[in-house]
Amino acid sequence: TDALTVLGIESSCDDTAAAVVRLRTSGADILSSVVKGQNNLHAVFGGVVPEIAARAHVEQLDICVEEALAEANKRLSEVDAIAVTAGPGLIGGVLSGVMCAKGLSAGTGIPLIGVNHLAGHALTPRLTDQVSYPYVMLLVSGGHCQLLLVSDCRTFRRIGGTIDDAPGEAFDKTARILGLAQPGGPSVEHEAMKGHVKRFTFPRPLLDRPGSDMSFSGLKTAVIRTRDSIVADKGGLTDQDRSDICAGFQDAVADVLAEKTRRALQEVKTELGKNPAFSVAGGVASNAKIRAKLETVSSAFGAAFLAPPLALCTDNAAMIAYAGGEQFQTGMRSDMTLSARPRWPL
Ligand code: KG4
Ligand code: ZN
């Protein structure tokens, strides 16, 4: 048959993951997708600690692979290719995954393919919705913020992106400034629900400039300034103050992402052709307010809006298996010289 069974391995940040995906002539099935997070390990430090992450990956990788194969009801010998995230990410974690995949490949003779983590995110709407090329993708996570034109499984054109912090980072910092729990995205979103969007107006950086580049570091400064002036005034923050700041901050991020997405779609209008499609991925894409504004922009443009389920928006190995599978089908392979690339632009 033409079907291809791929084992995927992901360990570039703070999730260890393995998955088995079966690619058919069109579309794919996720036979299993195991993700083991490390939030509990990093929580007390207020952020991901690379050394702790790497050690946890080493401990979890074999277990994840075994569980993924068992859940998929496959033996390793039934796998046609092993796809592994080879970057970008934290060097220790990426290395652990690459070593694990190389070991499996060397021991079995199953072909190996190193996958760019961002390509995994960018190809997710093909895995979930069988969207056809080309389409526009907004990748928004704790470490990334890019608008991409995806033309095939190895051709990505950067239309725009952040010039400093990623939006997820801004959410995390805002949470820290306000004394809310990490990761900051979900806490800030939760607080914002009780807040008044109009009480504080935060800047919309770079909206006055043409193009699709974004900036989020100034927002963090604005949040600090707002907090400090309330504290100077009243001696501390009330819950309502906190909620109002969260609401204003979230609204600013959503506006910037939406407007820059609108411009990006406009910029590649010709390339997108008659049936334009737009998709999002990354942890920040799980924010309901942000999703809603993106969907509005997308439908105003006339594009199909594809929002993969949450579990496939955040880091997982199914997207790596899928991306590796599609690249494998075009003849791409890696060999035992495959190495970890902590920096690896698409
Ligand atoms: O994609 P992801 O799970 O991991 C990587 O960064 O690769 O994204 C995590 C980021 C964190 O910064 C987190 O605060 C943010 O996504 N995030 C959110 C929400 N959920 C997670 N940001 C805004 N709203 C959310 N609901
Ligand atoms: Zn990611």
TrEMBL record:
InterPro entries: ATPase_NBD, Gcp-like_dom, KAE1/TsaD, TsaD. The keyword Transferase applies. Binds 1 Fe(2+) ion per subunit. Keywords: Acyltransferase, Cytoplasm, Iron, Metal-binding, Transferase, tRNA processing. Fe cation binds at H117, H121, D315. It holds the Pfam family TsaD. Its EC number is 2.3.1.234. Its main location: cytoplasm. It is found in: Cytoplasm. One of its GO terms (molecular function) is tRNA N(6)-L-threonylcarbamoyladenine synthase activity. The keyword Magnesium does not apply. Substrate binds at L139, V140, S141, G142, G143, D172, G185, E189, N287. It catalyses: L-threonylcarbamoyladenylate + adenosine(37) in tRNA = N(6)-L-threonylcarbamoyladenosine(37) in tRNA + AMP + H(+). Residues 30-322 form the Gcp-like domain. Its cofactor is Fe(2+). Required for the formation of a threonylcarbamoyl group on adenosine at position 37 (t(6)A37) in tRNAs that read codons beginning with adenine. Is involved in the transfer of the threonylcarbamoyl moiety of threonylcarbamoyl-AMP (TC-AMP) to the N6 group of A37, together with TsaE and TsaB. TsaD likely plays a direct catalytic role in this reaction. Belongs to the KAE1 / TsaD family. NCBIfam families: gcp_kae1, T6A_TsaD_YgjD. This is tRNA N6-adenosine threonylcarbamoyltransferase. The gene is tsaD.
